[in-house]
Amino acid sequence: MGKLRDRRGETLTETLCAVLVLALAVALLAAMLSASSRLDRKTDQAAADLYQSFSGAENPAPGTNPTEGTVSVQIGDGTEENVPVQFYGNSDQVVSYRIKTEESTP
Amino acid sequence: MNVVTRKLKSRSGISLAIALVFFLLCAMVGTVVLSAASASAGSTARERQLYRETMALTSAANLLSQDIQTMTYTGAYTRTETVTITVDPSGILSTKVVTSEKYQRGIPKLENSRLFGVKKNPDGTYSDHLHLTERFCRNQSGLLDGITVEPAPQTITFQAVEAQNIPEVTGSLTVAEDYTLTVVLQCGENSLTMSFPPHAVSHTEVADPVTTKLNDAATQKITTATYSTILTWGQPLMQEGGADHG
Predict the structure, then answer these.
(1) Cβ contact A35–B34 (<8 Å)
(2) Which ipTM value was assigned to this complex?
């Protein structure tokens, strides 16, 4: 209460310094919160894409156009068999493959 | 304590100190929030890798399962029994039985498998990866006798040829004494054990006895019996993990 009733004030330099420091602190906090929020949104989007890709790879929707390719299966020391397969899902995320069958050929 | 008390009772300015404390507080709060967001982003990246490994493992297991379940193995076995009956001058009969067994070669052994079918070697010989050749027997119920020596596990590696962000899957295949095929697959920290039970889908026995009179005192009866069995493997029993599949 004494401080509130005190009629003496701070110097102008001290007040300006304090204002500057407070402004810096507020700016820093705002920048960090903004970066954190951006990162959070990005993470949410990445997680949503990941789940969607996983789901698409596990149970491809009817009409999905798979990418064709081969999977190399090596048995024992030397023999290698290239099996034609169809890839499902997003190649940047999660991909599954299945043996290419006659029915699955468009 | 005196410093704090003095500061509390002091009538001089406090703005700068408060501002510095506030600055520190903001920096701390901001750092904590940013760290939490970074940790969340990192966990998504780890989760993505885990999903990729799980999907690669599942895909390899499906491919292998599909191949093994369409595979048939035909084994044939010939048993020749020669019975010679001799009558000596005093009229006493004596019987001598000689048995020989032979596995038939040259028949298609392993069919309908893209992965384990019989392969032609560079030297012109043929081989298969399941090493079932010459271990194919029959028993009275038409099922199969077990193999006598368990072959060493075969290693299997699955790798997508194109860059599809699919991790490599490695594993091993073992043929048990009762022809059960056990496959253990591993990708990253995930592993899966599949056991394919064998089924004899057909079993035939053909006997062809031929009796020959060798001379007045001896008669010989040769019976050649051919047994053939077609073997398939059924739906696998799947178990997560690979260490204690037994």
Answers:
(1) yes
(2) 0.70
